[in-house]
Design goal:
Chain lengths: 153, 153, 153, 153, 153, 153
């Protein structure tokens, strides 16, 4: 049976940390679906079309990686895609608490879906989308924090 | 390529938490090697023969699960076994800090080996070997904390 | 002197964790007042009437437990009710930091009021109102997370 | 029914933090038993006789407070003393993780015993016995960290 | 070369904790610029004119301390002021995670600027502006939490 | 008045993290004394002569940096050296709790001495002496974790 993982997130914007996580997870899964959670009520910084396009550019050479958008519960989306695994990165202990609670809630909603955590590379552990947004908002240079293949203006 | 994971630990003694973790990891790997770290200088509470025997009993019906002992660096043992993954459980934020540092050190020693974390089941998050030892040492009943298939006297 | 505790919160909605906490605290106090903090400016997910009715249903067989609403400072409400204790649950270290600061601020405002903490049952530690709301918002089944005596549609 | 709490610890030595915790807990219980855990195999810094005598001096004017020693499991000692509550202080998040696990293990061993946590006073949150020992070992002045009624030489 | 530090913050309102931090940092720097971050889009509780005036009153006898406002990136403001240091206080582990990430991001944006952390005095560790605002909003007495030289109505 | 800092530690062995911390602190102080805590009762992994020699080699080109050994309380050693500052690095939240308590105890023992914290560089946050010792003990290659100018066999 094919091992499929869903990597859900907002990717607002995608960071070097997200990119590294997917590359680290490649040997573990047969297919990784990067799934941009879409919630028409929540305002995001960058439009979903741009976020999707950036991810498609970054992983264009990896047929094993798909880019998609979804709304609703992550576990329902996983079921629809026959994905038994949710992929998430951990950068620090606070991440762990939040992510752990979400993972356990998902596991209660659907016990057949397991969340798999990889740890961020040390040098990338500071790169969070919210810090990148904050720098961008103030006109700072975010190029050091985002994947080298894309341009965010 | 076969996906082989090493699950290193002391298992002094094995707990329900360890058992649940391996069962949750089964769909993710083709083979899981439970590897009891053996250090002749460090004193353990239960002898290594017993710890190995308990694990063999618990997983006797799972041909996918092997039990072994090792000494030396975990990454060297992984290489010897052609294992590209280290499996570890996370129960709480302090676990995360410790495990995260070990994972990053291992990744520096051998960048081809990735540590994969699963989160403990909520009801089992309290079960640590050190608490079980403490209860046992004081003559308390540890049966609620260890896998049902084994007897620890 | 009667030992009265105020258990303040938003209960938006009440969870199995809240229910278990009150039941655990019953032997400790002569009276527990579950006090729904009411702030006309803050938007909640469920209306206060519903939140109050759910709590009344759950604890209808416990004359020792009262349900009330309040606005203003918790310590002032406690004084008005002759309550010397504030009851709060702790699920994880992040809870502790936040709750600890609030407890110390309350203790500075009124040194005669003590905050008493009980720890969540391990199996319930994931149940937070915010996760329950998130699942409900996406149309998921929240029945496993809320007390069995009530129905939240 | 009398509300009896056991406050277990090593008190090696007793600190201002321990003293403040008992005083804060007085309104909550009819009796508080400060129980010095005694383990003939574990080496302590101060002999148990001294530790017991210091506690007896500090609380000599509080008939509600008893001083005792015990070995074995805390929950067994509680049962023997008809104590339904274990009292513990929390200073910081790391305390919480450790104490929380112990509390949940105790609650598994005897579901009728509840651990009650009070938070340390902000100004006393640094005072740990291990830091006091370290200062004493190096010949520093520990008088600011220990209750005013006793002398530790 | 003059050692100049920027102490950036919102100071909404200034607390005893902020005041103590600057006084503790005085021996370390030749000049400390308290810089109120100004963001016309973010709503604050107190107007910037009041926040600036309070700080000016508190430090009126310290010529080494300047009060200023700024918008944009902190590292850019530092460069403009020839400040090589950012001063920040740490109250607890959660502070540390947040502050640490910001410090590392700033250090990536400008490697010549170093963030220097001092730890809050134990008795002041609870004093956060957000708790002070919450008490003020409910009509509570905040005088114990703010510097003695100013009046906040 | 000269700004002198003591950087106390065991340095068993010195790591790239220690080296980076001192280099980052250079602009802040007129003199930094790296002080190896010496306790004849505590067993270390490497002898103190080697630890001192490694530090002397690493900082031989920095006249502003002195290497020394000391026993007794850190605050007493600081006073003897006319140092008003203690320098420490922070890698993660657990570091913070431990270091914060020590800093507050030192500040109680001598209110004129302030502890100054710098944060570890992200890529170096995993490098702890205890992990380096563990790798060395098992015959692993530690060269990636220690300063480039020294050889540890």
């Amino acid at each position: 049976m094919k091992r499929i993982a869903v990597y859900p997130g907002t990717f607002d914007p995608v960071t070097k940390g997200h990119e590294a996580l997917v590359l680290k997870a490649l040997p573990l899964f047969d297919e990784i679906i990067i799934a941009i959670g879409h919630n028409s009520k929540k305002q995001t910084y960058f439009p979903i079309e741009k976020r999707k396009a950036w991810l498609e550019t970054i992983f264009s050479n990896y047929p094993q990686v798909k880019i998609d958008t979804f709304d609703g519960l992550t576990v329902n989306y996983c079921k629809e895609k026959n994905a038994r695994f949710i992929l998430r990165g951990l950068r620090n202990p606070t991440d762990f608490e939040y992510e752990g609670n979400i993972a356990q809630a998902n596991s209660t909603l659907n016990p057949e879906i397991e969340t798999v955590f990889l740890i961020s590379n040390p040098g990338l552990s500071i790169v969070s989308s919210s810090i990148v947004r904050e720098i961008h908002r103030h006109g700072g240079d975010i190029s050091q924090f985002i994947p080298s293949g894309i341009i965010i203006e």
